[in-house]
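Lecture 7 notes: from sequence to structure.
We start with the chain below.
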Amino acid sequence: MIETELLTENIDRERLDGLSTLALAHVGDGVFELLARTHAAAAGCERVEQMHRSTVALVSAQAQARAAERLLPVLTEEEKAAYRRGRNAKPKTAPAHATLAEYARATGLETLFGMLYLTGQAQRILQLWNILLCGERESE
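Predicted structure tokens for the same chain:
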């Protein structure tokens, strides 16, 4: 279990609205990656290669796109707005291993996690993360 005290950033709405969408996605990418790495380590992966594979399985654009689809039904209106903001961003590049649609949904998810982190909503981040982990276990 990840302690919420680690997630302490909290900026006001005006500063949040002043950040670019891709800045929010950048922060969210880091939050999501940290959650995935922590999950891999806590799950008992002993070798670095195991941890890396476990992490990539959660943070790839395809995995994040699937995760976004699973979360949409449980998001608040504010969270859906953050997700749409990221999904509709126009990044200059996309990875070769994902479709543009997958990359857009992944960016939406990262933007959502960035917004939640920067507004100090650690409990909500962990709630959504646990929903995703339950969905991953069901799909195995």
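Points to note: The chain has one domain: 4-139. The radius of gyration is 14 Å.
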